[in-house]
Amino acid sequence: MEEMYQRRRAGLWVFALAGALASAxxxxxxxxxxxxxxxxxxxxxxxxxxxxxxxxxxxxTWQGPTAQGGTPPIQNxxxxxxxxxxxxxxxxxxxxAVSAAANQSASCSxxxxxxxxxxxxxxxxxxxxxxxxxxxxxxxxxxAYPIPAPSYSYPAQLQLTLAARYAGQTFTVANExxxxxxxxxxLGRLPSALTTNTxxxxxxxxxxxxxxxxPSSATTQYIAGKLRDMxxxxxxxxxxxxxxxxxxxPQFVGTPPHRGAGAPFVPxxxxxxxxxxxxxxxxxxxxxxxxxxDVKRYIGVDGLHPTQQGFTLMAQTFAKVIQxxxxxxxxxx
Length: 333
What we know:
This protein has 333 residues and is α/β, with parallel strands linked by helices. It contains ten helices and 15 strands.
């Protein structure tokens, strides 16, 4: 009996071993291969912009491109490094990422645009005229003419206005206003002023004393004739369209000693001035319209000379015409 039990036990063990071996044989499958590395991609920074005040190349910095995927180590390179100097215009920067271990590469690109502030094609200006050009305002009482011309005169303010807009350029605005001067005397003085200042552009406003002394239609015709002669003299030095011929500011009969006696004839005179500009090829600058919007704000108590706010408006009006005629922008390469 014992012998039979031992044989049976041994048979069960052999059977179990065989089953285990058979099961092991069924599970003996090959190991799965490692997944391939993720595709290498490269993302460039956004387009970069910068300003060159002088037009010279400027340094531009950016965060480097970002690589994703691939097998480290990964090396990035760009055709220009961050911090490189770029000229005015638009430059394309190309970048590449390389994963040598997995023989992968990726690329991207972005632009660097450098702009220059607007510039003027001219730099030397000469304002020619009488006390209005000089910068005499009109407080009550005696009119004193300071030397040099006051800082609030329209030529002085025009120079500051141009310098603020056109960074990197140097301007001169010569003030050739002569207080109390009559138009025929100004015509005789103009050639020497042109020789002394050699302007690129002439700003012309003259004849207020003639109209004050003899307010009449005949005087408006006389002043227009003298202004025509001045434009022709100026054209011996500068192109016709570089003579900026201004209309008269408005006037009114002001506080004694009032100087606005010619007020009724200013519109007629301005029509004649516009005709001179057209016939001679000069550029007309309309001072009358903007200053008429609030005459007693822009013209002082004597009815003739501008206030300091009036001089500011005159400078702004001339600056707008100068911008329209002479402003240039460098073309992108």
